[in-house]
Amino acid sequence: METATIPHTIQASPDHAMLHLQLPPGRSIRAEAASMAAMDPSLELTTSARGGFKRLLSGENIFLNTFTAHEREGQLDLAPSVPGDIVHVSLENQALYVQNGAFLACSEGVNVDASYQGLKGFFGGKGLFMARCTGLGDLWFSTYGGIVEIPVEDRYVVDNGYVVAFTEGLDYNVKPRGVLKSFFFSQEGLVTHFSGKGRLWVQTRRVPALVNWADSFRREKTNTPDDD
Predict the structure, then answer these.
(1) How wide is the angle at C-alpha 59 spanned by C-alphas 57 and 60, nearest 5°?
(2) In contact, 174 and 160? CB cutoff 8 Å
(3) pTM, to two decimals
């Protein structure tokens, strides 16, 4: 059964993107808790816990808000928790893996569950779990910075901190970049080696890099006689 894409626009992309939706009568979407910026008062809002402890381990909030349009179309604006871009993907009964905290919203035909990634996920910097999105319908995810889609035909290497999402047709392994010496002293860390055929989304910025850059401008507190 084919599900029509919910009319939407992504505004203020890529720096401070906001998702604007126009929910047709009888349609619903599920969204990350606290992501609602504005809504039509005709929409019904309900909150439920989904995924339980596994979803909590994946870095997502266990509570999801469901917005439903009943008798007439309703407008809804969703804003991610960090400044950056939003991507829309139409799922057609395939699976897509999304990094911790990147899930924003989905339509009623999409199921979002936590998928155990094992130690390769842990050493990849994304935790033991990632969000596994399956089904038929709309999916929106977001991250800090812009998001670039890369078609992978055979192999591709990405710094592990830049991976946002990838399709199920891709396998991956996490390895140190270069020899052991460069791993400790180059500040490049680990990289993710993808293989297979599918789609990959990477982000253009990383929060840790911003924090390290901003930290260099902090004033160091000096002791004064009154501090002793």
Answers:
(1) 105
(2) yes
(3) 0.82
Q: Give the count of domains, the chain.
A: 1
| Cα dihedral across residues 44, 45, 50, 52: positive or negative | negative
Over residues 33-38, mean pLDDT? 94
- What's the length of the chain? 228
Q: Does 225 reside within a domain?
A: no
Identify whether 115 is part of a domain: yes
pLDDT at 102: 92
Tens of pLDDT along 43-92?
999 998 765 555 555 555 568 899 999 999 999 999 998 899 999 999 99
Task: Assign residue 121 a region (left: φ > 0; alpha: ψ between -120 and 50; beta: otherwise).
Answer: alpha
Strand bridging mode 129-144 / 84-92: antiparallel
Burial class (CB in 10 A: 0-12, 13-18, 19+), 147: buried
Q: Comparing C-alpha atoms, which of 65, 69, 68 is closest to residue 79?
A: 65
Q: Which domain holds residue 161?
A: 8-216
Average pLDDT over residues 93-121: 84
Tell whether 221 is covered by a domain: no
In a domain, 226, yes or no: no
Mean pLDDT of 95-103: 91
The Cα 113–Cα 129 span in angstroms is: 10
> Domain of 80: which CATH number?
3.60.160.10
